From TrEMBL:
Domain Aldehyde dehydrogenase stretches: 17-477
Pfam families hit by this protein: Aldedh
Top-rank taxon, per record: Bacteria
EC number(s) on file: 1.2.1.27
Source organism of this protein record: Nocardioides taihuensis
Keywords in alphabetical order: NAD, Oxidoreductase
GO molecular function: oxidoreductase activity
UniProt xrefs under InterPro entries: Ald_DH/histidinol_DH (IPR016161), Ald_DH_C (IPR016163), Ald_DH_CS_CYS (IPR016160), Ald_DH_N (IPR016162), Aldehyde_DH_dom (IPR015590), MeMal-semiAld_DH (IPR010061)
Protein name: methylmalonate-semialdehyde dehydrogenase (CoA acylating)
Amino acid sequence: MTTIEHWVGGHTTAGRSARTAPVFDPATGEQQGEVRLATRDDVADAVGAADRAFEDWSQTSLARRAKVLFAFRELVNAHAEELAALIVAEHGKVFSDALGEVARGQEVIEFACGIPHLVKGEYSDQVSTGIDSFSFREPLGVVAGITPFNFPVMVPMWMHPVAIACGNTFVLKPSERDPSASNLVAELWQRAGLPDGVFNVVHGDKEAVDALLDDPRVSAVSFVGSTPIARYIHERGTANGKRVQALGGAKNHAIVLPDADIGFAAEHLSAAAFGSAGERCMAISAAVAVGGAGDAVVEAVSDLARAVRVGPGRDAASEMGPVVTRAAQERIESIVTAGEQQGAQVRVDGRGYVVPGHEGGFFVGPTVVDRVTSEMDVYREEIFGPVLSVVRADTVDEAIAFINANPYGNGTAIFTNSGEAARRFQRGVKVGMIGINVPVPVPMAFYSFGGWKDSLFGDKHVHGPEGVSFYTRAKVVTSRWPVPADASDATFHFRST
Ligand code: NAD
C-alpha cells in the first residue's frame, strides 16, 4: 500500500501529521493507498516555501516564464498516458476519458504559454500636455487552489498554469480521494525548470483548507467543488481579505424541441448524462422535453442507456466506469429510490448494478427517470451520478422559465433546428455556459469557464482572460518628464485640458 506525501519546496515530505485518509480503487472497492492529511503547520510550511519563492519568480522575465510553460507543456504531453493511468486508478473513469481530461488541461497550459501577450498593458500618449498614462499588471503573491475529485488533473490546470505564468507562486490542495496525479504534475513542473517552491502540493481535508483560508500570506484562493463548500470558502476567504473565485455545483438541463433530430439529441444526451458516470459539473442531468418530443426522447435515450458498456476504467471495452466511493454509490441509489417513491417512473434502473469479476466495485448503471417534477429529490439534488431525469414542458418559454427557477446556473443546452428558438434560449436563460446542439458546452481555454447563481461565488471565471485578470492586479501610471524651463508647472486645481 502506498502513502502519498506532500510536495513542498521541490521535494516530497511527510509533514507532521499522523492523520491519513484511505485511497480506493473504485473498480474493485479495495483500498490501494493512503494520503497524508496536512496539519496547519504543514500548510504553513508550504505557504512559506511559496512566499519565499515569490520574490524571485515574480521578477523573472516574461520570456523566461514562457519558456518554462512551453517545457511544461511538452512534459505533460509526453506523460499524458501516465497521468491518465493515475486518474483511472483513483477516480475510476475510463482511460480514453482520462486522456481527454489531460488534453483539456494541456490546452490551458498552451493558453498560458502566451503570457507575454496576455499581460500587455495600455498606453495613452499626451493625455494632458506633456503627460502620458499607462497601465500594467502585477502578480498577487501566493495563491491557493482547492480542487474536487472529479477532474484531478484538468481542474487544477484551470488554475496553476495561468497563476504561475502571471508570476504568482502556488499551493495546491487537491481532493484527498484521488491525490496522486498532483504529485506527478509537481515533478513535471520541476523538470520543466520551474524554481523550487513556485508550485507546492499539500494533501488534506478541512484542516488544511481552513489553514489556507486563514493564512495572511495567501493573497487569493481558487476553489472548485460543491456549492455548500464553495459558499463557505468564499465567505471565509473574503472575510480574511483575499480574492476568491469559488465554483460550485450544478444541475444542467438540456431542452429538446419537437423539431430536433431526436436520434442526434438522444445520442448526445446519453453521452452527456452517463459519460464519466455523470461525475462532471457540466453533465446533463435533466432533459426538458417540449411538446410532443417527450415519449420519443425517453424511448431513444433509454435504449442507449441499456447499451452502455459499464466496467473498470482500465478495460478498453468499458464506456463508463464506477463512481468514486461506496458513499457516492449509496447516495445516488437512495436518491433514485426517493424519486420513485415520490411518483417518478424509473425507465432504466442502474441500482444494484454488478460487473462480473468486480463485485466489490462502486458501480451504478445508467439510469433514466421519467415524469420528474421540480418538487422531487431526484430533481432538486445534484446527484453527481449516471442518472438522467426527464421533465416535460409545453413550450420553449416554459422550458426556459423552468431552467431559470433552478438555483444553479452552470451549463445548459438546447437541441433544435430553429435558429429563432435557439436565439430566444441563449438570450433568456440565466446560465453561464450555453450549448446549441452541443450538450457539454465547456469553453475552450482562451475563453473563461464559469457558471452563474449558486454555481459560482465571486465575480471572475477561471482561465481565459478572466483567469489572467483574477491572478493579477493593475497599476496605472501617470507620468511627466518636464523640460527644465517647465519645472514649476504645478497647479492647485484639476486641469481642463
Ligand atoms: P467537495 O466540495 O466535497 O470537495 C472539494 C474540495 O473541498 C476538496 O479539495 C475537499 O477536500 C474540500 N472540502 C471538502 N469538504 C470541506 C469542508 N467542510 N471544508 C473545507 N474544505 C472542504 O466536492 P467534490 O465531491 O470533491 O467534487 C464534486 C463537486 O464539485 C460537485 O458538486 C461538482 O458539481 C463540483 N464541481 C464543480 C465544477 C465547476 O466548474 N463548477 C467543476 C468540477 C466539479
